[in-house]
Amino acid sequence: MHLFILAAAALLGLSAAQHNPHTKHGRTAMVHLFEWRWADIAAECERFLAPSGYAGVQISPPHENIVINSPWRPWWERYQPTSYNLCSRSGNEHELRDMISRCNNVGVNIYVDAVVNHMCGASGGEGSHSVCGSWFSANRKEFPTIPFTHWDFNDHKCRTGSGNIENYGDADQVRDCRLVGLLDLAMEKDYVRGKVADYLNKLIDMGVAGFRVDACKHMWPGDLSAVYGRMHNLNTTWFSGGSRPFVFQEVIDLGGEPITSREYFHLGRVTEFKYGAKLGTIFRKWNGEKLSYTKSWGEGWGFMPEGNALVFVDNHDNQRGHGAGGASIVTFWDPKLHKMAVAYMLAHPYGVARVMSSFRWDRHFVNGKDQNDWMGPPSHGNGVTKPVPINSDQTCGDGWVCEHRWRQIKNMAVFRNVVNGQPHANWWDNQSNQVAFGRGNRGFIVFNNDDWNLDVTLNTGMPGGAYCDVISGQKDGGGCTGKLIQVGGDGRAHFKISNRDEDTFVAIHAESKL
Ligand code: QV4
Ligand code: CA
Fold first, then answer.
1. Span 369-389, pLDDT tens digits
2. The Glycosyl hydrolase family 13 catalytic domain covers which part of the protein (predicted)?
3. CA dist 272 → 73, 379, 449 (Å)
């Protein structure tokens, strides 16, 4: 039997294992702590993420990057590597290592945002204007710290006049030309593959659980396969022997382009951008969309196969108009809708879920475009990123939004753990924007996104008893701080949700039972 399983695993190939996030203690959801300092992430793992049941953290790129002063220290400078030294606005290598160990020690996995398609922009100049002082020349395409020289870039392969990607309808230029002017690495070269693999392996050996691989649409699947094939197994201090790194690849596929997500399925998971774009449209009730249409949410909506998907309501790009998704994306700027959309995602079984944790910036729209979409994290005048202070009510200060700490979202991360592995069940809808569904007999959630009250008795599939709603409050000792839901011996319960409630949804689960 054992041999059979081993043989089957070998047949599936190593890559099948790169779809597994290796989460621990029955935890399921990850959170993107966008632009957080390593020291703050370490503290957050210990004081909040582990006790709240979060499975992992996506961290901002840890490599050294170009310093951009105009605009002043934009968040996106971190997507322009100048060396693979582990030194950034989030902290140095020592702080990174300390964070990875401390998070692992409390069972929270670290997933690294790996920017390996390119180095800095072609107009990045020459000098030591890297966050930790490494010298480089964008003009001569030299990055001696790695080292990469002009031989390691793709320009000879690119056939557009500008050297940039001009037409997403041409797969060759999407892979071989410069993405918004960023110096494009020649990943077909064994030398480049080796340097990228060394970078990833250093992080794997330090204890990370995997990677969000940036800009995969712009890399050939065959090149990625070669690089992934060189990755070490995860560090056995924290993971079982033979564990492959979890890989989730950023490919924006909303349809209509020659490059599809499908080309990357065998290599790892892929970001499902249709998910947040559609969910936003539904909760905003645009284009005639209704929540009741989500009965077949998931593959039934034309999303990728469930085992391939990494899902999210918003990400660091589309919450500020970068990348794809457009105006429908719901972010913390629309808190009521955002909480509902995130709760829907966390209640639903489709995909590996990622929660966004943002910083605030001064939004300033001119003709529909945010002039300040570049603004970096809360920082001191000298560009140093500010720590994340925790207020007495458990929210964050100094411009850090901390959506993952909002009671409704945190409690739904717990809900997802409690119902893990249970089937989508007991669907109900009013043919409009009131819907309900359960997860086996372990959890049940009811949404009212109509402009009128919800007042209905539903089959929850749950054992009879008194349950605390984990949205308006939660279980606290022998009582509930919010609504109490009484489930009868027949599994039926009465729900009442005013459209004017602060939150127009209710959720109960096995562990919120009194
Ligand atoms: C500018 C001009 C170019 C010109 C170039 C000359 O616009 O026409 O050729 O100068 O050097 C920044 C600037 C951009 C600038 C570029 C190079 O915004 O104007 O080009 O730097 O200096 C982030 C930001 C980008 C930013 C980039 C690098 O979103 O604005 O570019 O970091 O700092 C596609 C991709 C997808 C991508 C998405 C945004 O398929 O992969 O666009 N998403 C990922 C990340 C994203 C990141 C990158 C990829 C690049 O999630 O955050 O882009 O690593 O859909
Ligand atoms: Ca490329």
1. 999 999 999 999 999 999 999
2. 28-416
3. 29, 32, 24
Any ligand 1 atom below 6 A from CB of 231: no
Q: What angle do CA 244, 78, 142 make, to 5 degrees?
A: 90
d(CA 106, CA 93) in angstroms, rounded, equals 20
416-440: buried (b, 16+ CB within 10 Å) or exposed (e) per residue? bbbbeebebbbebbbeebbbbbbbb
pTM for the model stands at: 0.97
Residue 46 confidence (pLDDT) above 90: yes
DSSP 3-state assignment of 505?
strand
Pick from 76, 310, 369 the residue to mutate for probing ligand 1's pocket: most ligand atoms within 8 Å of its CB: 76
Instruction: Please tell me if the CB atom of residue 53 comes closer than 6 angstroms to any atom of ligand 1.
Output: no
- Kindly name the residue from 142, 184, 214, 263 that is annotated as catalytic: 214
Full 3-state SS string of 50-91: HHHCCCEEEECCCCCEECCCCCCCCHHHHHCECCCCCCECCE
Q: Whose CA is nearest to atom 18 of ligand 1?
A: 76
Residue 126 per-residue DSSP state: E
Given this model, what pLDDT does residue 315 score?
A: 98
Please report, for residues 60, 362, 455, 461, the alpha-carbon distance to residue 487 in angstroms, rounded to integers and kept in the order given: 44, 46, 15, 9
Q: Whose CA is nearest to atom 28 of ligand 1?
A: 79
Of 281, 310, 227, the closest CA to residue 32 belongs to 310
CB of 335 closer than 6 angstroms to any ligand 1 atom: no
Return the residue whose CA atom lies nearest to atom 16 of ligand 1: 180
| pLDDT mean over 399-403 | 98
Cα angle: 28, vertex 34, 40; to 5 degrees: 85
Is 250 annotated in the active site? yes
pLDDT interval class at 397 (50, 70, 90) = very high
CB 478 within 8 A of CB 471: no
d(CA 322, CA 306): 26
Residue 324 pLDDT > 90: no
| Local structure of 2: helix, strand or coil | helix
Report yes or no: 34 and 7 within 8 Å, Cβ to Cβ: no
> Over the stretch 200-239, which tens digit does the pLDDT of each residue have?
999 999 999 999 999 999 999 999 999 999 999 999 999 9
**Residues within 5 A (CB) of ion ligand 2:** 117, 184, 218
Examine the pLDDT at 10 and tell me if it is beyond 80: no
User: Ligand 1: which atom is nearest the Cα of residue 118?
Assistant: 54
